[in-house]
Amino acid sequence: MPLLFDSGPRIRPEEFRLLRDLVNEFCGIRFPDDMQFVMERKLKERLQRLEIKDFAEYYHYLRYHPDARAELERAVDVLTTNETYLFREEYQLRAFQREVLPLLHRRGQKQQRLSIWSAGCSTGEEVYTIAILIRESHLFDGWDVRVIGNDISRRVLTVARRGSYGPSSFRSMPESYKSFFVETPEGRTVRPDIRTMCSFAHLNLLDPSRYSVVGTVDAIFCRNVLIYFDTASRRKVIEGFYERLSPGGFLFLGHSESLLNVSTAFELVHLSSDLVYQKPFALDRGLLLGEPK
Amino acid sequence: MSIERLQKALVDVDAETRRRAVLSLASEPPSSLLCELLMRALGDQDWRVRKESAQVSLRRARELSLIEPLVRALCQSDNVGLRNAALDVLEELGEEAAPALIAALPRAPENARKFVVEALGEAGGPLVIFELKQAALSSDVNLAGEAIEALARIGGPEADAVIRSRLRASDPFLRLAALEALNRRDAQMDWEELEPLIEDRMLRRVAIAALGRTARPEALDPLFRALDDPALSTVGAAATAIVKLLRNSGAVRELALPRLRALGARARAGLAALLGGAHEAELRRASAELLAYAKDEAALGQIIVQLTLDAASPETLSALRDWGEDAVAPLVALASTLEPPEERAVALELAADLAAVSQTRATPLNRLVRETLRPALHDHDPVVVAAAARSLGPYVEASDAEALVQCALSIDPEVARSAARALEALVETERDAVERAIRSVEVETAQAAALASVLAMLGGPEALDRLRGLLSADEPHTRRAALHALGRIGGGRAAQMVALALADENSDVQVAAAQVLGRLRDENGGVPGASELMLAVHSEHAQVRAAVARALGNTGLSLALEPLCDLLRDDDGGVAIAAIEGLGHLTGDTLAEKLKDALVHPDREVVKAALRALASTHDQNAPGELIAALAHDAWDVRQVAAELIGDLRVSSARPALAAQLARENDDLARAALSDALRSLAEEVG
Hints:
The complex is a heterodimer of chains A (293) and B (685). Chain A is an alpha/beta fold and 293 residues long. Chain A is 38% helix and 18% strand. Chain A is built from nine helices and ten strands. Chain A has helices at residues 13-27, 36-50, 55-64, 68-79, 90-107, 125-137, 154-162, 192-195, 231-244, and strands at 113-119, 144-151, 164-165, 181-184, 187-190, 198-202, 217-222, 245-253, 267-270, 275-278. In chain A, helix 2 (36-50) crosses helix 4 (68-79), helix 3 (55-64) packs across helix 4 and helix 5 (90-107) packs across helix 6. The radius of gyration of chain B is 33 Å and the shape is globular. In chain B, 70% of the residues lie in helices and 0% in strands. Classes of the chains: A alpha/beta (293), B mainly alpha (685). Chains A and B meet through helix 1, helix 2 and helix 3 of A and helix 2, helix 4, helix 21, helix 23 and helix 27 of B.
């Protein structure tokens, strides 16, 4: 595909709208109108790969071809930026480690089980960051700890499972954490004991009926994912999160995200350095943040 | 839970209990108590309870006659939470709430009137616009400002005219509100109405942004002055405005381009700062475009970065082409220094693209590009190799043949494809060199898919044999490539090989075989694969049936009519569309009858295909069907109908087009309707 994007098939405004709506219906991501040429440029690669002559034919492929669903996944994969890094928005992670993990430790004494879900985990940096913070806290040694990551893109999940990263993934990681990685020919790779805490699933966030594979979780991280979704899709995803969280469970969103106009089901809780959402305990008037009475 | 228990729960000290009680109200039977409870919950002290109540109130507003109580809640000032929640619900109700809001406006307390106006902004309609116009002219600045905002949300020529009239308001805040509203509306502006506002310190930046929509040369002076402004926000407003002017007026563009090329250091520095640091993509795009027109060599690297990140517009590429050969040497330099490889590849491809314009190979510039491209064929990164191979076409020489053949065997599909294109170009001038290079390698392998098209160009019995070898490759992709190559060679022997592939175990290969058979002709113009195609109509794979339908249409044979009519009833929408397209190639004036069901099909893609087929065959019923489709529920069907009416110059459709335009609310459909009316007017003219 030529890198100079003004050659090859052009996307007409109506084709852009039909494709945009199809992608939105599939995964909730909404592309603004000024992304038309970006969509044109990025999808040209798919057209060429499938030997398709124009965007109208590609739309028909996505609607009618037996391989349409897989192709939609590929289209979403090329259209979205999956860029993330270890210890992203560290102040929030600190709050999680210092204030939320001790609470979850107190609450889970009986079952000695901890489940955290990184929703829309992309290449897995957040999943491993969470696992490292849990391990570092030593609160859960000997517990059944699971950190689950999901994404709609199979490609990024392959990278996530590998757990090997280049320099840009480490740009925000404090030096003190380098012992959690080992040098390999592929780059710096997450230590095996951390990797065994983590598992990955191919899940479309817009399909909450499949969330059950994640089980009940104590906290969900969904940071800088919902910003690309339209309101209706956000509501659907948040309802699904609500169902998956145990009572008193926490929801972490990105610093620019909120549940305003999306859901009233969560309580906004002030931590010392961050605001997080918490699923209220059932009608037993349990103290937010703390243990149920 | 009974309504009494819910009533109790609604005064519980626990907010979560109250919220859940509100949720339960959603399924309670209608009663005056239910209305009262909902309105009470709407004023709850906890925002979550209020939001929940707003959702329930919205769903049940009509059934419970909640609009009047909501308007009353909007007009009170004791409970701010209740007022805001009522506003949310009324805004969501939109037009339905308009009569009650209009009735309340004159008697609403002064401090509540702006909220009534705000709610009206989501309603629309002539009555609402009339009321908002009165409010916009009010001496109460807050109310008038709110009315301007509301009118901007409603939009349309009438609302725009009211807003525009407030540009002359004596109060500067109202002028600012009007200008910002017109900017948000992206409304066309007159230079005369903006000129007095440009030097107003409060309005300057907003007025600068609006100048981009004047399409007037007078706007250039203040805009270029603003590029020198020390405030980057003003520079950004000016840059986006200039970019709009370049797009909207050819005459202004002619005047602007020389000024851009002569841009001073201060303006260049401001634009460069935006290009490298602005958070908003629109500002980076505008800066990249202007700096490219300014031929700013220092900014070239950053422009490449933006191109690689998809953050530059297609117009930036036009600007770089406008820069032309002078940019080639700096681009070649960047191609060896930039990291990551994607940026090197863009620089390389752009350099080749700009130098190729000169057409003569012997120029020093072309030699420079060629000397840069050749070693890049051996780069360690495939994205650079692909860019080099792709760009080599105009510069390719016999000595490149071997390297290109090696690239064409790459496991990276983009590298292989790009190298094959370059080899195809080379076959035109250095056939023997390509033949020698291909003979030296083993092509009967899965990796040789890209070479199939080159073999087809070389032709001859040897090529047929080698393509037959490729048809036995493990990879379906390679077999497909071989089929398409055989289609290019043509003839009876090729047809035989292709027909056999209709029985390939891979459905994508079958699709390729059908596509090729639809195009193949023998020496007498006959269709050698027709009988095989007729049999493949019953394939178990929908995509094969669709490909066969299109192929049958391409044959032009009348015996294809019957199977195509059968395929019209296929359960798969994609097959039905392909059958419609196939029939469009075959039948003339009887097509409408065959497509009766397709024209009312629930899948709008099927309807659009039927309309296109009717139009392409000039069926006598086409005008009637196209006019009927102007009122279709789907915007894209209405748009296609309008486009086809314009193309066919269906003069009898003029009243229907005008009527639909008056009520059309989809922008793309509106544009198509306007274009069609214009085409018909030109026809008369």
